[in-house]
From TrEMBL:
Organism: Evansella cellulosilytica (strain ATCC 21833 / DSM 2522 / FERM P-1141 / JCM 9156 / N-4)
Coiled coil: 22-49
Keyword Oxidoreductase: no
PANTHER family cross-referenced by the UniProt entry: CARBOXYPEPTIDASE 1, METAL-DEPENDENT CARBOXYPEPTIDASE
Oligopeptidase F N-terminal domain boundaries: 112-177
Peptidase M3A/M3B catalytic domain location: 199-578
Record-given protein name: Oligoendopeptidase, pepF/M3 family
A Gene Ontology BP annotation from the UniProt entry: proteolysis
Length: 593
């Protein structure tokens, strides 16, 4: 039977040829490099007139779109084929162009600081600046807390072959890795992404085999990964030290436009509720016939009859369920499938994980994942489409106002995921199917409450030790195990000591602490979902309004304006967790022996 939707994305419509040797891309990069060079000189020579700088900022936003467009394209190339040598070289060039652009932004920040209060008030009152006043105030405030412009530019220049190089090196190592897995008496070699998909097997012996082989693969390269992690963290810490930043969470909180008070109360409220989720893990262990779950059991299917969902069926289901909440979101998702915006094919050579990236000039998005038919894959597909829709409703805003933080970015994606997950549970035709689908939903709760918490604890403690010197691979294993045991309330029989090496997020240089925003987004989306269920017809426009504000409000203000809640108090977080507990209670009732 012929598939309705292709599982390979179309990159040709972005840059003709769609490959790393695209002539259209090369021409674009050459022109962009020349434009950035000219723009930097003009910025450096500009007088202090407010109109002049307003024009510079308007232009900077347009140039920023070009940098983003080319960077997103090259990111797609490296993800679809980790051995694409041309794409690897282009990655270096993109980093160079990004550094040139950041240098221009630093020059702009210097001028924002140089304006007197009267000049500043005149500047932000200009019509061309009206829509980005929040972003301009934010840039000015953040600039006050950094080094002088020439020093910040030096850091940016050095980061290409220093800081970011360690992230690139990590990706290079992962790209050459393979995991040998024995199936039906035959040993096959898989990429780490393909091996990860095999962890959803309902055969526990096979799951343990895949887990052990994967751990061995990461252990084999652990010394190199310890190097990448130590050195990118060292670069980050030295930069913080130069700026006088004593708290390692300062930058991630600043990036996420979030108060530490909000972060602390979120984790505290989760921790107080973990005992209930430990009971769920104990029940799941009983269903699987083991005394205690191991790490490789946490997301395992509880049913031996877990059905695979074809890609076409997943697409149809996602569009149908989106339509029950938002016809506009459903139409968008349908367009993404029809226009081949999604790379989902399962094949060797792809990087692990999933992501959504945006092309601001083309006003398009692309979604990357490896689809193998599991319920988790369906959830990932819905999740990434949520990201894409978020960007879609912001395309007409100024570029500065489109730059929403990771925590609120995860809100739209998790909300989309929940729509599909809730619907599939309600539509389940048998008790067994309902139990399996509830388990899939609760797995996500465990991931956000425990797995992500373990990552946060690990990274926090690692940075404290890194301040004193290099941290060995063995010690990284120990810190990881300690964090996992604490986060999972010592509820597992076996953990993943090399998780610090296997999780790409620890090695991404663009975003420090790539963990807690996921949990924030998950619970924040719970609050939005609850209001969506209650609201009915007027929800769609309210939801779009909230998404459009994500790039121009602090998260506490965003929640107050659109949900009328206080994120610095435990009430909101507890109500969101209680929604997850409803699924937990149903699961416990259905699985009573």
């Amino acid at each position: 039977m012929t598939a309705k939707y292709k599982q390979v994305w179309d990159l040709d419509s972005i840059f003709k040829g769609g490959t790393s040797d695209s002539e259209a891309l090369l021409k674009f990069l050459n022109e962009l490099e020349a434009e950035l060079s000219t723009f930097q000189k003009e910025t450096d020579a500009a007088d202090s007139n407010v109109e002049t700088w307003a024009n510079i900022i308007v232009r900077a936003q347009e140039v920023g779109k070009k940098v983003r467009e080319s960077g997103a394209f090259v990111g797609c190339l490296t993800a679809q084929d980790v051995k694409d040598e041309g794409a690897k070289l282009l990655t270096g060039r993109i980093k160079q162009l990004s550094s040139m652009y950041q240098s221009i932004l630093t020059s702009i920040d210097e001028q924002l600081l140089a304006f007197s209060d009267d000049e500043w008030n005149l500047f932000i009152s200009l019509d061309s600046m009206y829509e980005i006043v929040f972003n301009l105030n934010e840039r000015r405030q953040n600039a006050k807390e950094k080094l002088a412009g020439d020093k910040e530019k030096l850091i940016q220049a050095l980061s290409i072959d220093g800081y970011h190089a360690w992230g690139d090196f990590y990706s290079t190592i992962v790209g050459r890795m393979s995991v040998d897995i024995e199936e039906d008496g035959e040993v096959n070699s898989y990429s780490v992404g393909q091996a990860a998909n095999k962890m959803s097997s309902n055969d526990r012996t096979f799951r343990k085999h895949v887990f052990d082989q994967t751990e061995k693969a990461w252990e084999k390269e652990s010394e190199l990964f310890a190097n990448t992690l130590n050195h990118l963290a060292g670069f980050r810490l030295k930069t913080y030290e130069a700026r006088g930043w004593g708290e390692v969470l300062k930058e991630p909180l600043q990036i996420n436009r979030m108060k530490k008070e909000t972060l602390d109360v979120m984790w505290d409220t989760i921790t107080k509720n973990k005992a209930d989720f430990v009971k769920y893990m104990e029940r799941k262990a009983k269903l699987l016939g083991v005394e205690k779950l191991a790490m490789y059991d946490v997301s395992a299917p509880v049913s031996e009859n877990a059905e695979e969902v074809s890609y076409d069926d997943a697409a149809t289901m996602i569009v149908e369920q989106f339509r029950t909440f938002s016809p506009k979101m459903a139409d968008f998702a349908q367009m993404a499938f029809d226009k081949e915006w999604i790379e989902a094919e399962s094949r060797p050579g792809k990087r692990p994980g999933g992501f959504c990236t945006s092309f601001p000039m083309s006003e398009q998005s692309r979604i990357f994942m490896t689809y193998s038919g599991s319920a988790s894959n369906v959830a990932t597909l819905a999740h990434e489409l949520g990201h894409a829709y978020h960007q879609h409703v912001m395309n007409d805003l100024p570029q500065m106002s489109q730059r929403y933080a990771m925590n609120v970015a995860e809100t739209a994606s998790t909300f989309a995921e929940m729509i599909v997950a809730d619907a599939t549970v309600k539509q389940a035709e048998t008790k067994e199917a309902k139990i399996q689908l509830l388990d899939d939903k609760l797995n996500r709760g465990i991931a956000f409450f425990m797995n992500i918490h373990a990552r946060f604890l690990f990274e926090t403690r690692f940075y404290e030790e890194r301040k004193k010197g290099l941290v060995s691979a063995n010690r990284l294993n120990e810190i990881m195990l300690e964090a996992q045991k604490e986060a999972y309330c010592d509820g597992l029989s076996e953990y993943s000591p090399h998780f610090w090496a296997s999780k790409l997020h620890f090695h991404i240089t663009g975003v420090p602490f790539y963990n807690f925003p996921y949990t924030f987004g998950y619970l924040f989306s719970m609050g939005i979902y609850a209001q969506a269920v209650e609201s009915g017809g007027d929800f769609e426009e309210r939801y779009i309004d909230l998404l459009r504000d994500t790039g121009r409000l602090e998260v506490e203000e965003l929640a107050k304006k659109h949900l009328n809640v206080d994120l610095t108090k435990p009430d909101f977080w507890q109500k969101a967790i209680d929604l997850v507990k409803q699924d937990l209670d149903t699961f416990m009732e259905l699985t009573e022996s």
